[in-house]
Design brief:
0% strand
């Protein structure tokens, strides 16, 4: 069973996908300045997953296309399908690593994080989870401005594995 913090990340990811459901390619690339396009946000969250679970934690460099979606990079309007595929690859590749995390692991600094005094793995796990919620709200706002109706309401029903449980 995954650590409860990992389950929280998975719940945020599920809500992220719920917020993207039914989005068209045409609407995903609309940019309502100063907000980034939704397709950019998908690439950005794929970048963040890669940054934390591949590069910093394991020293694995993959998917250089995601560098264009790093924090502070210029806005763009990439293909939603391409960004969603990259996000799917990052999540699928991160999940086995995340499944193995224990509380002592969460208290460690990532082995390959080159920043001075990097945050712990657990802090990064929380940050990525909270980052999803920020962009979930942003996606919802953009979709409302685009006139989309019957959007997902947040927070949705907790899945059985999303209920509160103690570690272990």
């Amino acid at each position: 069973m995954a650590h409860p913090r990992v389950d929280q990340l998975r719940f945020a990811r599920a809500e992220w996908l719920r917020g993207l459901a039914g989005l068209t390619e045409a609407d995903a690339v609309v940019r309502l300045e100063p907000i980034n396009s939704i397709s950019w946000m998908v690439g950005h969250m794929a970048w963040h997953e890669r940054q934390c679970w591949f590069q910093r934690a394991r020293g694995i460099t993959i998917e250089p296309i995601l560098d264009a979606f790093a924090t502070g990079r210029p806005a763009s309007t990439p293909s939603l399908a391409e960004m969603q595929a990259a996000w799917d690859r990052m999540v699928a590749g991160a999940d086995p690593f995340l499944d193995g995390l224990t509380t002592p692991d969460l208290e460690l600094r990532p082995a390959h994080d080159q920043r001075p005094d990097p945050p712990t793995v657990g802090s990064q796990l929380q940050y990525v989870t909270y980052h999803y919620w920020s962009h979930i709200g942003e996606v919802s706002a953009v979709r409302q401005l685009l006139g989309h109706a019957e959007l997902a309401e947040y927070v949705g029903d907790l899945p059985p594995d999303g209920e509160y449980r103690r570690e272990g």
